[in-house]
Each structure stands twice: as structure tokens, then as C-alpha cells.
Amino acid sequence: FxxxxxxxxxxxxxxxxRIPPMLAAxxxxxxxxxxxxxxLWFKSR
Length: 45
Prior knowledge:
By secondary structure, this protein is an all-alpha fold. It has helices at 2-16, 21-43. It has two helices and no strands. The protein starts with a helix and ends with a helix.
């Protein structure tokens, strides 16, 4: 659900010209990937 919201929001911002389209396309992946790495790091402790 969070990924879909991020994708929709960043897509709208990219289409409006608020953020570069390349960043808009990758932003949800970067956010969810970083969140996953943080969770893995905490679980391994």
C-alpha cells in the first residue's frame, strides 16, 4: 500500500514538473529499498 501511494505521489509530482521525471520514477524504489535494508539491519542485531 505504501509503495502504491509513493508511486502515485511521485508520478504526479514528476508530471507537474516539481521533481525531475527520473527521480519520480525511482523514488518509490529507493524509499522501499532503504526501508527494507534498515529492517534487515535491525533484525540481524
